[in-house]
Amino acid sequence: MRRVGKFILVLAVIGIMAIFTLPLWGMGPAILLDSDRTILSAHASPDGRLIAQIERFTVGGAPDGVPSIVVIVRPWWAPNWYIAGCAAASHYQEASARLVWTGNMKLQLMVQGDPSEWTIGSAPFHNGGCPGLSLALAPAATVKSGRR
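The chain above was modelled as a monomer; its predicted structure follows.
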């Protein structure tokens, strides 16, 4: 292979890698580095293939440092990184909730207060929801800080 051909091949590989990692660039890695993330609870699906977790996520530039509560679902083997999972639901203020798996791809989120205040299928810095996952919101009389 000629030198020009190798150069074009290297540029093509770099371009393809940049395109496939583009979703990670969404709001810029600096915003994720300037955030505070606390996992409140995590539960495995009945078959053990998925992990659903409730997180308190505060972005450094957020007004008054108000946290968002998010539900992230990831494969059991994926690292415990915020952007490694998909966004099942979010609440753009402090809120109490608890997760209950009702099937391998069915998740119930029991929330304190009005369920309509929750957004399904999105969270800060996530492009979309969880394909194939069925999520139901239900009001709960007493929910303790995201724990089961």
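The helical segments are 3-20, 22-25, 29-33.
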